[in-house]
Description:
CATH class of the domain at 827-940 and 948-1127: Mainly Beta
Shape: globular
CATH superfamily of the domain at 827-940 and 948-1127: TolB, C-terminal domain
Distance between the termini: 121 Å
Number of strands: 35
Low-confidence stretches: 1-9, 801-810
Strand order of the largest sheet: 1-5-6-4-2-3
Helix content: 40-55%
Largest sheet: 6 strands, mixed
Strand content: 5-15%
Structural class: alpha+beta
Number of helices: 35
Radius of gyration: 36 Å
Amino acid sequence: MGVAEQVVTERERVSIWERPLWMAMAIDWEKVLVAGIFVAAVVSRLWMVGARVMSHDESLHTEYSWYLFKGRGFQHTPLMHGTFQMHIIALFYWLFGDNDTTSRLPAALFGIALVMFPLLLRRWLGRTGALATSFLLLISPSILYYARYTRNEAFVLLEAAAMVWAFLRYEQTREAKWLYVLAAATSLLFTTKEVSYIYVGIFLLFLVIRFVLQALRGEVAWTYEEYRRPFSIAVAATLALGAITGIEFLNSGGMGGGFSTTLTILLTLTAAAGIAAIVLVLLGIREEAPAESRKEARFALPPIVLEVREGIRKYASLELILVFATLILPQFSALLVKRLGWDPLDYTDAGIIHSATVVVPLLLLTLLIGAIWDWRRWLIAAGIFYAIFITLYTTVFTNPQGLASGLMGSLGYWMVQQGVKRGDQPWYYYLIVTPLYEFLPLILGMVAIIYYGARRWTARAQRRTVEWADGAVGSDIWAPFSAWWLVMSFVLYSYAGEKMPWLMVHLTLPAVFLAGWLLGQFLTTADWRTIARQGGWAVALLLVLIGFAWPALVGSRPFQSQEQQELARTAQWLSSLLIIAAALVGVYLYWQRMGTRPLLRVAAAAGILGLVVLTVRTAWRANYINYDNTREFLVYAHGAPAVKQVMAQVEEISQRMTGGLDLKVAFEEDTAWPFTWYLRNYPNQRYMGASASSDVRNYPVVIVGDKNYAKFDPYLKDTHYKFEYIFLWWPMEDYKNLTWERIRYALTNPEMRAAVWDIIFNRDYEKYGQLTGGNYALSQWPLRHSFRLYLDKKIAAQLWDHTVGPVEPIKPPEDPHAKTKRDIAPIQVWGTQGSGEGQFNRPRNLAIGPDGSIYVVDTDNHRVQKFDAQGNFVKAWGSMSPKGNDGQPILPAPPGTFTEPWGIAVDKDGNVYVADTWNHRIQKFTSDGVFLKEWGTFGTPGVDNPTLGPGQFWGPRGIAIGPDGNVYVTDTGNKRVQVFTPDGQFIAAFGGGGPLDGQMDEPVGIAIAEDGTIYIADTWNQRVQVFSKDRVYLRQWKVEMGWMDSSGETQGIDNKPYIAVDKQGRVYITDPQQYRVIVYRNDGTELLNFGNYGPEPNNFALPTGIAVDKDGNIYVADTDNHKIMKFGPIQ
């Protein structure tokens, strides 16, 4: 025994407790770097992790985890992906309490583990490559951001990395424990998020393709050569049929297009060819089973099956394919269930039976295959997989239905969501957004693919093997696998209907793995000491100097004028030119000294270092400066900082008023997330849904989103102060609808190029806004939702003085309608929400026939209902027009069908004219609903000249019949009125867009007096315009403090007023979002107004249509209360 061997033996005999501490703490540079990366990972993942406002999705995850922590249980729903996140967050609440920081702590810890994980992959990355990979993961802007976020992404990345580690280690060692690690990691992935289907598809397909290529190249031992050629033919057939199937799949609408007969046949043929290839290769590589193998079988097997088993056992890759496939096959049951015409999201008894008819045979099949291969190892792997899967999806056996929703619902819901296309992003979304953050790994990843391919090509041409540096002996599987992973991720995530910034990390991870491997090769294949002695540092500094001067050179336009500012720009340009020229001379001199190859290495190192610095800057700004600022594209559908600011105010008020968190706080559906989370510890908080009532005044603090301002403000405007904030915002999305012309303009126009560069480099949108006419100041950000904090005035008076709180709010102007307001009760009300006879769904308008019959356009039921003069139902006609896959009506629509009809009128003969708004046409019926005629097509001829495009409409909403029988239609979207004969022949048009006399902006209601005078509700101009019977402008009057919502917004979708005229010439208008009817003389003098907000029979929720009968009775269509109200003649 040698001395060294003796020392080792003696060391092994010494207990770990007796060994000197220095032996365990032997420090080298690798350990220092590892320790530094670890400390940086901990600090970067944990520092300020709770500062950011909880986003909408985060608050869902935290709230339901909190329910689980509080003992309320959790029922899995695919809406929130897998259950792993809920369980681990609930655990952390139990350990450390519930708050924003502890909610994000599990993701942060997984993020730290991911940074350190490449150290387990040294065999494939190399020693230096593993450190480089860890460093790239440390500074990755997107991976860092979502490691500080209550989403599933941080968990998925580590689980996917563990899967890769497990199958690589199994290929290396063939030890069963790595199959068990693979089973555990795969199960955790499936219990975390539906992207698991993409991951396992990419990984499994790589293993299959790799083995097929090995078989085709003869790297597999063919025991029976006669199967080799048929195998090659079957593979070729599978590829050809697969390509044809893919084209047909895309042509038929992808995942949302269903399965045509042709597609079904092609899929069947492709599957048959693939199965044939599998059978042929298994028959070709089979070997005679030894005696001990035959004894191992737990039941009698045919000799050929035993031989095939022995063939599989020769190859680790085949065993991995078998284990992988048998574990995940049942997870794809939803595809077969849907193909059979059933609903995988149906959890009723019948639905579960349908699912079971697919799942049970697949489970039995996988059990049979696994038992034949190696019953002991397969059962252990499957036991680990299903133990984790069942425990988590059933919420530790408290929710049995979770097994169905996890096994069937996850994929079923995910397929539905791809058709929904949440976010509505273009196919090139990741090509735009990912390089903004992950330019470093993407650039190095692409270089790595080229480098690996070139090395392999050269080695093959020279008939030699490639010797990889840095101890990366597994490079020949690592590089092609990572490249495949990266390319397929880009393809699949770009094809998927739902594209979101957090999914970017799944593209970034394989890019980082490739980039780290390349850096390992790059850094260990050069003599850096010699390069440094030859002037490498000087060359690097010169190149950095060029890098700093270059933007000033290309970004300035010299010699433009003699003005001082232009002269300064010229001087800057000349200085940059001289610096670059001098630096290039220096580089040239060093090139002569050191040669081309070392110079290129220094240039590459300088470039990489520059990209590292830019990446660190990007990560810093995104994670610690702009972390909840929507200038960052990572901040998507995210709560604005005001959410936490408001909660700080609410807590202060509660503490001062109640000494704790007992303040009464109300909030509604539009602000439910994240305020459900932030108000969880307020016992007197109340969720009010979408409905307001007078009871809301009893809450000192009320939080309301802009969607429901109009419902809550009428109750609160007199008793509460209101303060408005930004609630939720999205990043700028002008990259949508890109064209080559827009791209060319952005690249060639200096001003636009500078504006785009400001966005890329500084997330500064000022220049872009100036060029495009947009306002991208944060306070005016275009893609945002707002919310209001309503504070009881009595509470404010007690809390705030001149040093605390707001300045006394400016008193609102005096209501000009207050003096003429009357309380008038209806004499009759009928209708409830529904689709039955006499029920309504948001009726928009009504008209009175010559016999007193009442005709109502039941808008959202897409029909017309007729009532007698007493309000009794007579009949109904119409149905919804057919719609296309995009949800829009198919034009031209069939006669007698409707798409949200808004306008209606009746002529002296009882014929009924309907403005079929979103079919962009007028339909004429008899009084009994028999279709007579239609006219009109969709068109937007422009708003400058109202006579263009006769008979073309864009959402016509109002219709009236003149004394001469002609039909007057408000062509609302085209901002004009068109006039037709009773048979639809065009006569004239007048109006046109604008605020001037006779011009219109969103004309809706129209009424014609007995003398032919025309009255038009010119909505967005907030005025009534009057024209003569010859369509000549006469006069107008302003609708003071009307035709707007509670925030002053005039252009809301529900602000669509109608107008009527009685025999005395009095003009009646509805004021929908102020919940009243106003009556004027024909000169615009207000006589009276009536109406209040509320769901009660006497109140309005959205008064829209209006008509007056010959006796002066007033009829109002109360759209949001789904009813018709009749008032007696005004006195």
